[in-house]
Amino acid sequence: MDSPDLSECFIRIIPTATSLFSMSRLSLSRNNVRSFSQEDGLAQATPIYNSSILEDMFLEENSEYVQKTFHEWKVLKEALILLKVWARNRNSLYSHDSLNGYLISMILSHLVVGSGESLIHKSMNVMQIFRVTLKFIATLNLKGRPLFLHPQGHCNIAKEDLNQLVKSFDTVLLDASCSFNLLFRMTKTAFVELQDEVSWTLKCIDKCRGGGFEEIFMTKVDFAAKFDSCLRINLKANPKICSGDFCMDNECWRIYEKNVQSLLQRGLSDRAKLVRVVWRSTPLDWNIEDGLSYFGNEPIIVGILISSQENSFRVVDIGPNPENKEEAMKFRKFWGEKAELRRFKDGAIAESTVWECEPWERHLIIKRICDYLISKHLLLSKEDIVHVVDQLDFCLQVNGKDPVAFSSVLLEAFELLSKRLRLLEDIPLKISSVQPLDPAFRHTSVFPPQPHPLAYETKYGKKLPKSATTCIPTLEVMIQLEGSGNWPLDSVAIEKTKSAFLLKIGESLEERWSALCVAAEDEVNILMSGYSFCLRIMHEKGLNMLQTQGVVDKNETFSIDKKLFMWSQHSSMINGLHGCYPTYGPVVRLAKRWVAAHLFSSFLEEEAVELIVAYLFLKPFPFHAPCSRVTGFLRFLRFLSCYDWTFSPLIIDINGDLTLKDENEINENFISRGKYYEENKNIAPSMFLAAPYDKTSKAWTRLSPNRSELKRICSYARSSADLLTNLILRGADGPYTWECLFRTPLNNYDAVVVLHHDKLSTPQHLLFPAVVDFGKLVICGKASNLFLPYTTLDGVQSLEEARNKLMVGFDPTRCFLEDLKREFPTTFKIWYDSLGGDVLGLTCDKKDSRKRGRDGADESSIELTDALKKVGEVGKGLVKSVHLVKVPKLQQ
Q1: Domain 24-217 adopts which CATH fold?
Q2: Paired residues of 478 in beta bridges
Q3: Which of 195, 428, 562, 803 is the most exposed place for a label (fewest CB within 10 A)?
């Protein structure tokens, strides 16, 4: 086989003869490991060891039983294959302490002829058997109720032996000989996980399209993508393990699995829905020739499923009342120095633990709890504990702090603006509604703006800082006016009337509340409370202008009101989603950061990214909705790379507004769009995102990404997903670190343009300064002195004087990009980072070379070099260097 993780065959030597050992010696209450004894020297029972011997002894008999059950029953065999595929795709289920193919066949046998009341019969088809089996496992209550392969009454086992089985094991399924428990290795935690997975699979069948076949049988549910939090613990040098006794009833690493699981489950309590601990005794690539020295070198892998955002990220844990001295003493012993006595608002006094942190750091609370408990009780150093929670936070922070901390200040500023706008009385029509449109208001902006010291009202009395950023970003806000029949009918006249209204609104805000109004040709910005709000008016008459039926033509344009309407509908939807899923915002921010870091900003709109991530929360199957940013980001990358964009529209229905008729209409629109572009031989957009407000995918993917662009995006997503999975499960390996997820290879472009990073509007957002040490240097440019990202306020006497240096909504990179598109409308395809990157990638359209002759490649190189020199001239003062990486291949 090609894969190094798979072997061609296994050879197992198993003593199956029942006469080799005495059955009485292998009863559950007997000891067969002589050194396994209590402190007083009394031998302890070894039920697990004894069961392992019995398993080998009766393997042949049980195999014959299974073969007899499945003999000439094709449908049952196919159902068994489906169950095995389902379990194998869930690698935390298909493990040493949970399921395997042999046990699945035994469970099916139990449902056919055992005490399972013959739930499976020959009139059933494959999927019915699959579903009945899952439903049986989901509703199974094994507490004190063992299962039998034979119908009850046919199994001769003493009541005392049965009680001993129930006492010794968490789950019991007696084999065909009624001699031992087939599930003796299955732990309680593994069974809880199995039931949860089964229940979720049944929901997937009911709620997913096509019965959830792809989600159930084709999607990999591994540790990295399933659990909200993954933790690696290195116990190689731990003294407790090194000095431990290997001669015990169970394998030593299984005992430590149980200890770690119980420790973390107790410490996390209701914060965690499930704590799953798996320790591989041998490495994945272990070779038998390496001997046993590698045993125990692999780290313990812990997966944590978070119960809820409210429970999991609370700051305080309330313990027992101090009057209950016994429980209080246990609490203090367990928590050590973290335990403290506190009085709460209701007057109650209780032992407690407090995990104080900034609001934007609350996702780290579980990490802090786990690290503290493991260090205290397992005596491990921080170097031996790797908790995958905050490794990606670096790309969302500015100067070590997440700017989302200012979200509450921003929302307060918007509420104040909204209130003041509604109070205006000196404008011809009253303002009926005010709606925020910018991603910062819906918690999905990668870098929500911080309050700017020069964007306050003139009455602002605070002392000015020594310096401030020169550029201030604008925040889109849509307003609607009360109805009137006096609006003009011409679209140009409507826009002029809107501009007049906006100017009047700005003047009124200036006069009444000392806000600053900054007017431009096509927008009006209001500076107040530390922010710049760009006001837009939506008028209902404009919604019906420039509307077309059917497919959107390549050259079709939307009216401004139509764009505003789609923005407003989108914002309302996403705001509702954020309230249900607090993790949604951080996942979107990571996804947007990744899109920009790999220079896809020109081809994937921010709103498109928000919709794709929204789908992962609304339709998370076969997973639960992600409760951590790293897990959600991994699922985004996998989904982006694996979804069938060519043949399937992506329908995002956040509020459940779409009916079956609407979905059929969306599918028809998807098919008709493909036919339209095929008939007109146009380059079709390859991503179809449908929402209740946009059933034709006109809003965000009307023109891009096309097939080649989407292919590159999916390829990068696949590579990033593989790297992220490896980082979660195995850690950084050599040069492949967490930062590599946001470092894009620059040698995949025909040319690269490097910008002076100190001439960017937000140089603090730059992740990694571009280093281009390959290709041919075409031009090297000097930095201009006309623009600086920071302005010095020393010596400035007043707010008005300081504001003269302020540039509202200015971004030199965006301006340069627009100039390049005007100068080279068909020559280059431009790839850039909208979040503060200092590099642009250029790719050229391939031209037909059949008329060029033998020197066509040289001529193409000369033409491209000349064009790149002109690129440097267009960006003079901003462009640091232009590099020709490769001459594009000519089509033959």
Answers
A1: Poly(a)-polymerase, middle domain (1.10.1410)
A2: 435, 536
A3: 428
